[in-house]
Amino acid sequence: MADRRYDPARRVVVKVGSSTLTAEDGGLDRQWVDDLCTQLAALRADGVEVVLVSSGAVAAGLRPLGLTQRPTDLGRLQAAASVGQGELVHAYAAALRRHGFVAGQVLLVPDDLVTRDRYLNARTTFSELLAMGALPIVNENDTVATEELRFGDNDRLAALVASMLGVDLLMLLSDVEGLHDGQPSAGAPVINEVHDLSTLDDRHRGGTGSAVGSGGMASKLDAARVATFSGVSCVIARGRRPDVVLDVARGEQVGTWFPPARKRPDSRRLWLAFAHQPAGRLHVDAGAVRALAQRGSSLLAIGVTAVDGTFERGDAIDVVGPDGHPVARGIVAYDAAEVTAMRGRSTEQLTDEQGDAFAAPIVHRDAMVVTA
User: Fold this and answer.
1) Confidence band for 148, pLDDT divided at 50, 70 and 90
2) Is 216 a known ligand-binding residue?
3) CATH code of 312's domain
4) Containing domain of residue 23, as a range?
5) What does the alpha-carbon distance between residue 219 and residue 207 come to, in Å, rounded to a whole number?
6) Is 34 annotated as a binding residue?
7) For 126-147, what is each residue's pLDDT tens digit?
8) β pairing state of 11-16 and 49-54
9) 175 a known binding residue?
10) Can you give the pTM of this predicted structure?
11) Which residues partner with 54 through β-bridges?
């Protein structure tokens, strides 16, 4: 027990990447799927609630369609996903059924997490599935997602699901042993723990994915940021390591661990922080940074120094400090042109010149989450 990183998890999200799921011939590795499901079933039998976020729909559809590599155009990607999703879920469901467990398919698009009522409905669906003993299998709905409206990769999707459900642990199963301190091919060692993601640089983030997947270490580190801010432990580990799911769930020192923040924000602030894709950025001065981070203040026009992007009232925006690092995310009360005209001016000036219509904060503290 002394060498364990954390107490055994009671609710976990496991994310599997395409490169881990794929056999040497490019098709779905059904033997590995069976082994994974044996581990997941062992957790469920021990009373652990499990959600599986699985990539691989596109990869699973390649061989049936006679393709040898992942398509680059959207139409063929969606066709491969349409064929492969059925193959993938059938393989999981059959393997879990042999252990006496039922799989439930959940396909999500960003609107399911951005629109508040759909977010709450999705959370209720997960909760009911888990309460009834089912094992949800989650993927982005690739057959209808577009480049303009998608999660980006399943690492981010897994982190958002973990945040939404308030799980103990997010496992990101990859084709590497963990986060290496440099290039794995050059023999760089695996980092055991990362307590501050801001200390990492480009040599840690690496490439952008494999021939069958869309993720990479950069997307996993972004997912770790979402998870840890949400009060969720995150571990990156090699998916084909024997008993990896069981060992990580027990807190064994496998892969790279990202400890959670000590205090988990409330669910609405988590929704504000991560469900939305920001439509722009507001640059603020050092005084505004202190007011937001230390006093929990609203963002006033006088602290805004510059405006990036074209956004409308009600859009999500990022607030960045003088060093360019994000400080907060929130729902803006004015459009980009209005904020540009208001920036640097006091509330009294704006009220005298424009009336009460411009007296409200740029971003109210109740519609903002500080991420610094």
Assistant:
1) very low
2) yes
3) 2.30.130.10
4) 11-268
5) 10
6) no
7) 999 999 999 999 988 755 554 4
8) parallel
9) yes
10) 0.79
11) 16
